[in-house]
Design brief:
- This protein has 555 residues and is of the alpha+beta class.
- The protein has two domains: 11-85; 173-553, Cytochrome P450 (Cytochrome p450, Orthogonal Bundle), CATH 1.10.630.
- 55% of the residues lie in helices and 9% in strands.
- It contains 26 helices and 13 strands.
- Strands 1-2-7-4 form a four-stranded mixed beta sheet. A three-stranded antiparallel beta sheet has the order 3-13-10. It has a two-stranded antiparallel ribbon with strand order 5-6.
- Helix 15 packs across helix 18 (285-308).
- It binds protoporphyrin IX containing FE.
- The site of protoporphyrin IX containing FE has 25 residues, from helix 11, helix 20 and helix 25.
- Heme binds at residue 498.
- Belongs to the cytochrome P450 family.
- It holds the Pfam family p450.
- Pathway: Secondary metabolite biosynthesis.
- This is High nitrogen upregulated cytochrome P450 monooxygenase 2.
């Protein structure tokens, strides 16, 4: 009988096939920026050749090509897995669950549930301030890394937006990885959110806030107040980005545009964990459909806005260099990307914060009445609550907004940064982080850490902000008071932070003053308040559950 070894061709051609596969995989993963696997694929030739011979002997019915493929893939997966959990991996000394160390697909799966924020918080509670949440990714819960990571001269942005936006080219501002390009693209945004520009937006804010209060006055019985905040913030951002064009507050969401925006969140969030798949995800019709719809919707408004020119100063005025006529307009693709960014970054975040704020106040009547007393003092009935003159003196109002953002940050898991590939690594505070590592400073975990905010860490207690600023007294007795502003990062930090922070603050203050000047909030009797935390889901920005309230006119 012929032996299996004799009945098959010599191993050289297969060795060649394995080498070729190694090279192809090497190139493919380099393209996908998964450098560890890319190097790996070249190191496996010898064990693969041995595996090839063994499998070929034990399963002679398989063709050499099939055996080569099986052996190559199995050895690649096995060796990558072993390397990632081995003490030789550069992040080996950082703890974390094995599933996270092995593959980012684990976090992608977790993110689909919307519980990413509580999952990472639980990892920090179990493993400490630095946790390995991916093969080459860390989550941190230590404010000492804030400046070295996010501050001037810190790290460039990480790749999550490539996965989220389904493209590695034409990234909008928020996703630009190259710090110099980012700084250049940020210039018109900085002009759009300068103090004089913000002053000019006041009538636009007042217009929509007045409409919101009027629409709410027309409602009878119980309402889901978050839905009205969604409509308000979307209409307002359309005013800001394109000089108008949306009337959700007036007509409702007849075009399903809000739904379109949110429908894509889970897939986008999962892909943000495997960003190298984002550009391919963009070719899957079911995944790309929502992005395509949003893009074609916004393209229409971009073109109209360009034709119409500047009727009044809005964000587009600056993004299109209309304030610097000597400069050429940017390409339309850039205006389109930045316009979509303004709508998406500016509407859902603010609406999330306002909904959480309504929930917190409706469940804490004492805080609600204290805030109303302050509003009545600065804006008694008949005074226009949208004139921003007094906002900065309204310390309780600021405390309420901050406390809401602390407990319910609209971007609960924050944005990532990455130590550039090919560098040795950097010290972030006391931690050495090797080149190629992506990292998050996790707002949800920081905000709910008693070392930084206590007492009443997980409760709504706006007074903590007054105590911290020496504007209030704590009656917490012998309990230690902890407060660390560096651990409060709802808008992120540094040159890549939220450029719309001041606008968002102004918008929220105007809504709260106008709403509470006019109405009392009453939560539905017997509504289980735990519903809010259960339904507060982290898809980068959050989705929120219904908050059923009745508004009672105060006069
Ligand atoms: C409560 C409301 C808001 C919150 C909590 C929030 C939060 C954030 C966060 C966490 C980032 C990521 C920053 C980073 O990469 O480190 C961001 C970026 C950004 N936000 Fe906001 N945001 C809010 C409202 C707004 C508004 C009203 C606008 C107006 C258009 C806006 C525009 C942007 C833009 C353009 C970026 C990208 C900035 C850059 O990469 O340079 N945001 N925001």
């Amino acid at each position: 009988m012929e032996s299996a070894a004799n009945s098959h061709p010599s191993m050289e051609p297969s060795l060649l096939a394995i080498c070729a596969m190694g090279l192809i995989t090497h190139q493919l993963f380099r393209r996908l920026e998964t450098y560890a696997i890319s190097t790996h694929s070249l190191l496996l030739v010898i064990p693969q050749a041995v595996g090839f011979m063994l499998l070929r002997r034990s399963m002679p019915q398989l063709t050499a090509a099939t055996v080569s493929c099986i052996v190559f893939l199995l050895s690649l997966i096995t060796s990558v897995t072993i390397y990632r959990i081995s003490p030789f991996h550069p992040l080996a000394h950082y703890p974390g669950p094995i599933a996270c160390k092995v593959s980012k697909f684990w976090m992608a799966g977790v993110s689909l549930t919307g519980r990413q924020h509580t999952y990472i918080q639980s990892l920090h509670q179990r493993y400490g301030d630095v946790v390995r949440i991916g093969p080459n990714e860390l989550s941190m819960r230590d404010p000492s890394v804030l400046n070295p990571t996010f501050g001037p001269g810190g790290l460039p942005k990480g790749p999550i937006m490539v996965g989220r936006i389904l493209t590695a080219t034409n990234l909008p501002l928020v996703g630009i990885l190259d710090p110099e390009l980012h700084a250049e693209r940020r210039k018109p945004w900085n002009r759009a959110f300068s103090a004089p520009a913000l002053k000019e937006y006041e009538p636009l804010i007042a217009n929509r806030v007045t409409q919101l209060v009027r629409v709410l006055s027309d409602q009878r019985g119980e309402i889901d107040v978050g839905r009205f905040f969604n409509y308000f913030s979307y209409d307002f951002m359309m005013d800001m980005a394109y000089g108008g064009g949306s009337e959700l507050l007036r007509d409702g969401d007849t075009n399903n545009i809000w739904h379109t925006m949110e429908a894509g969140w889970p897939a986008a969030t999962a892909l943000s964990h495997v960003p190298y798949l984002g550009p391919y995800g963009g070719r899957v019709p079911a995944i790309a459909a929502t992005v395509d719809r949003l893009v074609s919707y916004c393209r229409k408004f971009t073109m109209k806005r360009i034709e119409r020119g500047s009727e009044r100063k809005d964000i587009f005025h600056y993004l299109n260099n209309e304030d610097q006529p000597e400069k050429p307009s940017p390409p339309i693709s850039q205006l389109l990307d930045d316009g979509i960014l303004a709508i998406v970054a500016g509407s859902d975040t603010t609406s999330s914060a306002l909904t959480s704020l309504a929930f917190c106040l409706a469940t804490h009547p004492a805080a609600l009445h204290k805030l109303q007393a302050e509003i009545d003092r600065f804006y008694p009935a008949g005074e226009d609550p949208c004139v921003a003159t007094h906002y900065r003196d309204m310390h309780y109002l600021t405390a309420v907004v901050h406390e809401t953002l602390r407990l319910y940050p609209p971007v609960p898991s924050g944005m990532n940064r990455r130590v550039p590939h090919g560098t040795h690594g950097v010290m972030l505070g006391p931690y050495f982080v090797p080149g190629g590592t992506s990292m998050f400073l996790h707002p949800y975990s920081l905000h709910r850490d008693p070392r930084y905010f206590s007492p009443f860490t997980t409760s709504f207690w706006p007074e903590r902000w007054l105590v911290a600023a020496n504007r209030g007294f704590t009656n917490a007795g012998s309990v230690t008071f902890n407060h660390n502003d560096a651990a409060f990062v709802p808008f992120s930090h540094g040159p890549g932070n939220c450029v719309g922070k001041q606008l968002a603050m102004q918008e929220m203050r105007a809504v709260v003053c106008a709403l509470l000047q006019k109405f009392d909030l009453r939560l539905r009797d017997g509504w289980d308040v735990r519903e809010y935390d259960r339904g507060f889901k982290d898809y980068f920005v959050t989705t929120r559950p219904e908050v059923p309230v009745t508004l009672q006119a105060r006069f």
